[in-house]
């Protein structure tokens, strides 16, 4: 069950640093991995807290549950929701503790062994209550293996509170039941760039193009052509995450869910469009040639003006040192450019959300915590605290924060979830690197598709039988 490929995840804003991922280099790999903690069964105590006036304001916010009889929920993960010493505390956690008498008991494991640990705990009758869905690999495989339970008996997904996330949560439905409680989204991958580089090269500002409704593959391509100069080692784009992210702007995942079945979309015309676009980028020598540089990425080239775009999970901007990308006042990001063939500006979607573990002893507690996360989305007190923490701890600018809100809004309006990472390792391996061959090696999509389609369909047929 332990997939080899982790979709770059962005968790709730204040959780982002505690789960900060680091890119693992390797030949055409696309892996991010949260910082790991020692695997033990000890719990942690929150060392950070909010200011008293903020705590009081949150205590007065109206919530949906009565005080819990059992406030403790066990959370199995490689990262802790409780803040480490000196780190900001999530407003939703404060609300859960204050309003419900809640407590999150952290059960640590390594990221690589989290499914193995979950299986052992379920088999021993000592299940955790909650498991992160932010890696986007728990559904549908978790439903097929019965490691997770539907949330519908405890969470009212049709309520006004959950309405903003309906389109997202409805993508995790099997047999009419929701297996993920997603409480917020972020653009799974954003295009990081340096405003000084844009100005010095006389290029259009991507943020202005976005505001005008003109940030799309065509304007993106024109900018890359205008900038790229191999003789002077100036390249258009670097990083590990571009291929999958640009593909999802079509609105069509390589592997998706339809009528309760897992389906492959390799022959879809939208996939053909994006593969031709990536092949043309390769022919024009636009990508940074990682093969010539030991398969290493170089984000510092954004700051020194040698690379135009660095597509990456937004977590990369939640560190205390962003000097790779330049001076703070010059650091910018925008969502992935729109596919000109699609009916909407679809975006690859990262979620903050959780699943309910099979055998959970406190599903009501999980539901209460999820409701806290939803309440804090729109509450003025909570959003102000969150913004203040971002500016204080990560030195963001107003421009960066405004774009964060913009990308969140856009992602919730047109989310796309890729499921090839969440079926099994074989499906992941059949799709993950092959779909990048046009961009990395200049191999036609027709050739690649024909080499994997039959094996992929056979694997999905077997998995769908298991689902049934």
**Strand count:** 17
Label the structural class.
Answer: alpha/beta
DSSP strand content:
15-25%
Which value, in Å, is the CA radius of gyration?
A: 22 Å
Tally of helical segments: 17
What kind of sheet is the major sheet?
7 strands, mixed
Kindly provide the name of the CATH class of the largest domain.
Answer: Alpha Beta
Give the CATH H-level superfamily of the largest domain: Periplasmic binding protein-like II
**Average pLDDT, to the nearest integer?**
87
CATH topology of the largest domain, which one? D-Maltodextrin-Binding Protein, domain 2
> Could you say which overall geometry the principal axes of the C-alpha atoms support?
globular
The number of distinct structural domains comes to 2
